[in-house]
Amino acid sequence: MRRYETIFIADPDLGEEDVKGITEKIKGLIEAKGGQVEKAEDWGTRKLAYEVKKKSRGHYLYIKFSGKSDLVAELERNLRINEGVIKYQSVQVEEQKPAAQAAPAPVPAETAAEA
Amino acid sequence: MAVRQEREKRVFQKRKVCRYCADKNLVIDYKDFKSLKYFTSERGKIIPRRISGNCALHQRKVTVAIERARNIAFLPFTTIKSHPSH
């Protein structure tokens, strides 16, 4: 089991309910495939650095989970099919080295990035 | 003589310390694109190590983080600027 984090950008023109529907679907998929959702966040609508599918804004959603690698493949396949998702990226979470544990900063730095 | 002094001065000013080595608490994270912006030029290019002053290890990590941030539209690949001559 490895830990991953996926950011996906939903169409900004979608309603709250549709976005919620996508998130729930993804969460359900992770759990059905034997993974565990650690964290799911809604970062709201943000301006994109460049246009994606002719849209200059996007609704960012963040999910942190653990699972096997085939789960990531399946997740990305589903995101690709979903019409409401305009972009996605999955990254393996870097484990903190024991030497870095002395420094308490990693967690606050992460929350600052999310704000 | 004056020229020589100036050159020496410039060489001295160039020396910069890797900010991630100086402060071990700093974490390079692709989600923290605001601090990564510091390592990109106005046009969105990654600033080379000889100018940013990063050490090899941290420059590599910054590069990966910027590439990830670009991929998810946090940072631009390039900026399109209208050129007056065209």
Give a verbal description of the structure.
- The complex is a heterodimer of chains A (115) and B (86).
- Chain A has 115 residues and is an alpha+beta fold.
- Chain A has helices spanning 16-32, 69-81, 106-114; strands at residues 2-10, 36-52, 55-67, 85-92.
- Chain A has a 4-stranded antiparallel β-sheet, covered by helices on one side.
- In chain A, β2 and β3 form a beta hairpin.
- The longest helix of chain A has 17 residues, at 16-32.
- Chain A starts with a strand and ends with a helix.
- Residues 99-115 of chain A have low confidence and may be disordered.
- Chain B is mainly α.
- The model of chain B has no long low-confidence stretch (mean pLDDT 83).
- Chain A binds chain B through residues 7, 9, 48-50, 52, 58, 87, 89, 91, 100, 103-106, 109-110, 112-114, and chain B through 24-27, 29-34, 68, 70-77.
Written as H for each helix and E for each strand, in order along the chain, the element string of chain A is: EHEEHEH
Compressed to H and E, one letter per element, the order of chain B equals HHHHH
Tally of helical segments of chain B: 5
Radius of gyration of chain A: 15 Å
Which of globular, elongated, flat, extended, rod-shaped describes the shape of chain B? globular
Rg of chain B: 16 Å
User: At CATH's second level, what is the architecture of chain B?
Assistant: Irregular
Strand content of chain A: 35-45%
> What characterizes the major β-sheet of chain A?
4 strands, antiparallel
Number of helices of chain A: 3
Strand content of chain B: under 5%
Tell me which protein chains meet in the greatest interface and how many residues each side has.
A-B, 20 and 19 residues
The total strand number of chain B stands at: 0
Low-confidence stretches of chain B: none
Oligomer: heterodimer
The CATH homologous superfamily of chain B corresponds to Ribosomal protein S18
